[in-house]
Amino acid sequence: MEQEISDRLSISTNNHRAKKEAERIALLEQQKAEELPGRDRLFKITANAAQALLNHENLDNAIARALQIIGEGIDTDRVSVMEHCEDSTGESLGYAKMLFEWHSIHAISQLHHPNLQQVSYEGIESWYEQLNKGEVVGRVIEEIPEPVRSGQKEIGVKSLYSVPITIDGKYWGLIGFDDCREAKQRSETEISILKTTAACIGSAIQQSRIREEGEQAERQILLEQQRVTQLQEHNQVLEQREREVQRSYRILAATAQASNVLLTGEDFDKAVNKALEIIGISLDTDRVTVIENWHNPSKPSIPHWRVLYEWNSPDTMPQISHPELTQGSYEGIEEWYELQKKGQSIRCRLEEMPEPFRSGQAKIGVKIVHGVPLFIEGKHWGIVGIDDCRAETCRSEAELSILKTAAACIGGAIEQERTRRAQEKAERNILQEREKAAQEKAAQLKEHNQVLEQREREVQRSYRILAATAQASNILLTGEDFDNTVNRALQIIGESIDTDRIAIVENFDNPSDPSHLYWKITYEWDSAYAVSQINHPEVAQESYEGIEEWYELFSKGQTISCQLEEIPEPFRSKMAKIGVKTLSSVPIFIEDKYWGNIGIDDCRKETHRSEAELSILKTAAACIGGAIEQERTRRAQEKAERNILLEREKAAQEKAAQLEESNQILSLRDRWLEATANAANQLLAIAKLDEGINAALKMLGESLDCDRVAVMQHFEDSTGESLGFLCQLYEWYSLGTISQLVHPQLNEISTDGIAEYFVKLQAGEWIGGLIEEFPEPFRSSQIEELGVKSTYAVPIFVDNQYWGVLGIDHCREPKRLTLAEIAVFKTAASCIGSAIYRQQIQQEREQAERTMILEREQAAQEKAAQLEESNQILSLRDRWLEATANAANQLLAIADIDEGINAALKMLGESLDCDRVCVAQWFEDSTGETWGFIRLLYEWDSQYANRQILHPELKEITYSKEQEDMLVSLKEGGFVGGAIDEFPDEFFQTEQMELGVKSTYGVGIFVGDCFWGVLGIDYCRKPKRSTLPEIAVFKTAASCVGSAIYRQQIQQQKEQAELAILDERNRMAREIHDTLAQAFTGISLQLEAARNSLNTQPEAAQERLLRAKILAKEGITEARRSVRALRPEALDSGDLITALHQLIDKMVSGIDIKAEIFIEGEPRSLNPEIEVNLFRIAQEATTNTLRYAQADQICIQLIYETDIVHLQIKDNGIGFNPQLLQNQGFGLIGMRERCDRLKGNLVINSASDRGTEIIVTV
C-alpha cells in the first residue's frame, strides 16, 4: 500500500515537473517567436547598411548613410565612428578621434563640440583593453568613470555602447551608440548585430584604403612613366656633367698643386711658369698666360694689356715672344674690360671676336679664348688667359669658377712677390739710387749726399747745441761774476754752433726818438774771424726802423734766420759793415715780456740754421733770460742796500738821535745778509737740493735768532672751490720749539680765514706780524698748537711762477721785522727759488735725455715689431693656403661627402688656429616675412668653443629684413665679418655672444653657380681681424666645399636616374611578361594545337586559329597601351594643340602674366615622337620664362607648312646672353638634344632687356 502511494506521489511529482518544463518551453518558444520579427528587423537594418557601404563610391557618404540607417533602425540617438590614435610620446594609451557621426533630432552633435571631438582613454583604460580584445563595452551614465562621464553628460548621454572596429586583425577604432532620451540595455542579439555592422564598416574602410593605395600606386606609376623619358634624356646630360665635375676636380687639384708651387718655389718667375704649366695640362689647353693691365701715356683713353708669363703646349706658337702680340690695347673689346672689372669671366670663339683683336688672335692660332679676371688688393690687375688652338673647347662655369680660384692664388702670389720685391727694393734702394744717379745725374747724387751729410751735421749740431745749452745754464747758475758768466756762456754756445758772433741784445726806449723802438748790445762774444759789434760806434745800438715786422715776430716768440741780401734796409747796410753774411735771432722773455734777443751772426760763410737748432737756442735764450732776471733781482737788492746805506748816512747827518737805533738795524740786517749769503752758498755748494735747502734753513734760523724757518709749496685746489693750500716740505726749528712738519693737522695750511693773505703772496707781496693780528682760526692754531708769537712769510718764485713761501716764526718773544729785513728775507727766498729752478732745469735736461733715448729705442722696437708682424702675416697666409690645399685633397680623397667635409673642416680649423668652422645651408622664407635662414649641417669646434649645431635655438640663424646688406654681400661673392661688437645688428650680436664668439667671418658657398650656403669661421678666445688675402684663401676653401657638394648632387641625380630607369625597365619587363609574353604563349599553344588537328579535325583547327587571332589582337592592344603610357599625359587625351593649351592653362593659372597661343596653317596629326619632343621643348621654354625672365607676356605660335612644322616661344622678359649660357643647364642642352634627335633646327635669339625668342623647325 505504501509502495503504491509512493509510486503515485512520484508520478504526480514527475507530471508536475513535466508540466512546468512544458510551460517554460512554451514560454521560450513564445519569446523566440516574439523576438523573431525584431531579429529579422535588425538583420534587415544590417543588410541595408552593408548595401549602402557597397553601393556608394564615396566612402564618407557611404558611412554617413550607413550610420543613419543603423541609428534609425535601432532607435538610438547618436551613432558615431571614432578612430584610435596613438600617443606619439608613449606617455598614455592615446585617444579616440571622431570621424563620422549621425544623430537624431533629440541629440546634439558631438562631432562639432569644441572639447569632445577627441576622447582620451584617461580613466577608462579598462575599456581600451576590452576593445583591443574585440569585446563590446556598454554602460549607463552612472557607471562611466570620470572625467569621461562629465563630458558625456554635457551632450545628454544616458547610456552608451562601444563596439570595436578591427582592420587587418588590429584594433582600428570603434562605433559608438549613445541613448540620450532614456537608458537602454541592449540584448545579445542586438550586440551581435552591432558587431556585424562594425565589421562591415571596418571592411569598407579597409577596402577604401586599399582602393586609394591602388589609385595612388597607379598615379605614381603614371608619373614614373612620364618621368622615365626625361630621366633617359637627362642620363647623358648627367654623364656629361659627371665628366665636367671630374674635370673640375682635376682643375681644383691642379690649382692646389699650383698654389703649393707658388708658395714653395724659390725663383718666382719659374714658379709662376710651372704653375701655368700645371693648370694648362690639367685643362688640356694650348696656352695659359698671365696678362697685366697697364696705362699707355700715348693713348690714355684706352686701357692696355701685356703678357708677363706664358706656358704653351708643344707645337703651339708662343705669344709672349711675338713681335706684335706680346702687348696690345682693349680697342674693340672694351666690353670685355668692363666685364672683367666686375669679376666676370669671358668666353669667345675666334669668329665671334671683334676686330682688330680677332686678327691678332688668328695669327697665333687661337680658336677659342677664355679670360678669368685677376684682382690684386681688391683692384682689377689683369687676367689669366686660356687659349685653345687645336679645337674649340668650351669651358663650363664650374671650370671658370675654379679658375677664378687659381687666378686668386696667382694674384695672391704676385701680390706677395711684389711685397717681397718691394721690401728688397727698399733695402737696396739707396744703393740702386746711387748707381742710377752715377749713370744719369752725377751732380744730383753729389748734391743729395751733401744734403744727407748736412742733415747729419745738423743733428750732430743740435745735440752739440743742446749740450752747450746745458753747460751754459750750469755756468749761469754757478758763476759768481755775472758779466763774465754770461760772456762765458755765449762763448760756449757760439763755439758749439760754429758761428762768428753771438750777442745779447736788449730792447730800450729812446727818449729822443719815442716813435721808434731801440735795441742795444749788452753782451757779446766774437770768434777770431769777426769784428766786435758792441764796440762799433754805428751798430752797437740802433732802432728797429725797417725791421718793425721782426719786432712783431719776436714779440710772438718766433725766431728769424735770413741771409744778408734778405735783410731790409737800412739795417742790411749796417750788418754788412761788420761782415754779417747770415743773421739769426732768438727772442728772450723776462717775466713773460719780450725783453730782447740772442743774435747769432755768421761772417765767414752763409749758414742755414734749422728749426731744430733754433728751437734748442730758444731753451738757451730762456736760460739766459732767467739768469738776467735773477741778476737784475740781485742788482736791485744791491741797489736797495746802497740806498739803505745812503739813507743811513743821511739819517746820521740829519738825526743823530736815531743813530743807535739805525746801527742796531744795520747790524741785524748785516747779520741777515750774511746769513742769506751763507745760505745761498749752501744751496750752491751742496749738489742735492733737499740737503742744500735744509742746511740753508738751519743757517738762516741760527743766524737770525728765530725759532722756526720753513719752506712750503703751494698746491692748487683741483675743484676750483678755493685758492688751494700750502704744504710744508722743509723745516728748521730751535731747541724747545714744536715741529710743524710732523704735526698731523698743521703741516698743511688752507685758505680758511686767510684767503686775502694767499692773494698777496701770489702777487709777490710779503705777509706777517704779531700773531694776535691774524684772523681765526689761523691765529688759535698757531698759538695753541705751535706756540707762535709772531710770523712772517715771503713768496718763492720759480721761473717767474709762484711756487710757495719761505716762513719765519718767533715762539719765545714776538718781533716786528723792518722792510729792510723783509727785503733780505725776500733775497733768501729768491735764492731758494733759484736753487729749486736749477734743480728743475737739471731734472728736465735729464728727462729730455732719457726721453730721447727711449724714443730711439721705441722707434727701433716699432720697426722690429712691424717687420715681425709682416713676417707673421706672410707666414699665416702660407699656412692658410696650405690648409686649404690639404682640405681640398681631403674632399677629393674621401668618397663620403659628410666624412670628407668634416675632415676638411677639422683640418682647416686646426691649421688656422680658430675655434669653430662650420658649413650652413641657406633656405628661402616662402612667407616673405624674412629673407630666410641658414641651418648648420657640418661643424668643427676646438676645445674652447661650444657646439653650435647642438644649440636648440642657434643651429638655425634667421636673416631678418634689416640684415639685407649681409645677405647681399654673401650672395654676390663677398664676405661678412669682423669683431662681434662691431656688428650693427644687436640681435645677431646677442646670439653670437651667447656662443662666446669674439669675432666671426663668413663667405658664400656656391653650388653650380647658385648661392647654396655659408662657410663660417669663429674666434672665441680672442678677437682676430682677417686680411683680404686671408679672406681670399677662405673663399677658396668655400669653393672647394661647394664643388664637393655639387659633385655629390650630380652623383645623387645620376643614381636616382639610374634607379628610375631600372624601376621602369623592371615595370616594363613585368608588363611584357604579364601581357605580351602570356599572349604570345597562348598564340603559340593555339597554333600548335591547330597544326596537330588541321588534317583530322579541320573545324577544331579553324576554331583554334580564331582564338590565336583574338589573342594576337589583345596583345597588340596591350602593346599600344604600354606605348601610350610613355607619352605625356596631355597628349594621351588629345593632339599637340590641345596639349599646349592645357600646358598654358596649368602653368600660368593664378599668375599675373598674359599668355597666348596662335595656330597658323592646316593642323594635322604628327609623328608621336615629334609631338612629344615639341611639347617638351614648349614646356621647358615656358618654365624658364616663368622662373627667370621676369616677363609679363608670353606667346606660343605653332605653324603648319607642307612638310615643315615651326614652334615659336617668345617673351618680353629681361633676356640673357646665349653665348655665356650655351653649355649650361639641362634646359637648353635638352632642347638642343631633342632638335638633334628629330634632325631639326633650334635658334635662340635673346639680349639684355630685349626678351627671348626660341624657334624650333622640324
TrEMBL record:
Residues 221-248, 414-462, 628-669, 838-877 form a coiled coil. The keyword Coiled coil applies. GO terms for cellular component: membrane. Residues 1174-1258 form the Histidine kinase domain. GO terms for molecular function: phosphorelay sensor kinase activity; protein dimerization activity. Transmembrane segments: none annotated. Keywords: Coiled coil, Kinase, Transferase, Two-component regulatory system. InterPro entries: GAF, GAF-like_dom_sf, HATPase_C_sf, HATPase_dom, His_kinase_dom, Sensor_HK_TwoCompSys, Sig_transdc_His_kin_sub3_dim/P. The keyword Transferase applies. It holds the Pfam family HisKA_3. This is Histidine kinase domain-containing protein. It comes from Hyella patelloides LEGE 07179. The lineage of its organism: Bacteria, Bacillati, Cyanobacteriota, Cyanophyceae, Pleurocapsales.
